[in-house]
Amino acid sequence: MIADRIIEQGTLTTGSGRTAVEVRIPWYRALPGSCIAGAALTVDGVAAPQESLRWTMNNRTFSFDELVDETGEWWFPLDSAVLSGDLPVVEDQVEHEVRVDLKLYIPYIITDHGVLHIEEHDIKTMKAAQR
Asked: Distance between CA atoms of 43 and 3, rounded to whole angstroms?
C-alpha cells in the first residue's frame, strides 16, 4: 500500500537496552488497535525479541497481546506510533539499517479468505539518537 513511508526518517532512538522508531500506517484510513496484528523491529540485521516489543499510540503503550481486543484507541494516517523493543544498538556505528514489518487487518474489506490481512515492511538507514 504505502510501504515506503512506514518508518519515519530520523526517529531511531536508543537507551537502556531498548530501541524505538516512529512508524506510520501504510493504509489510507484509520484502524483500531485491534487491527494491528503484529510487528517486527530489526536493526543492523538483529531482531528485537517478539515478547519485548511494545506499541505506543495516543500516549498509551501496549503489548501485541493487549492490542487484540483494543477498540478504543485508533491509529490515524497523520499520526505516528512508536514501535520499541529490547535491542541494544551498537553506538560506534554512524548509520543503522532499520527494518519494520507490520501485519494489519483491514476490517471493512472482506475477501474469499475472510477479512483482508496485509503485511508490509520498510527499510531505512539512519543515525540513532540517545534517549
From this structure: 18
CA dist., res. 91 & res. 97, Å (int): 13
CATH number for 3-126 (one of 2.60.40, 3.30.450, 1.10.3470, 1.10.287): it is: 2.60.40
| pLDDT tens track for 18-37 | 999 999 999 999 999 999 99
Q: What is the 3-state secondary structure (H, E, C) of 66-120?
A: HHCCCCCCEECCCCCEEEEEECCCCCCCCCEEEEEEEEEEEEEEEECCEEEEEEE
Taking Cα atoms as reference points, which of 97, 83, 114 lies closest to residue 19? 83
Question: What is the spatial distance between Cα 22 and Cα 82, in angstroms, rounded to a whole number?
Answer: 4
Q: Which three cell numbers stand for residue 26?
A: 501504510
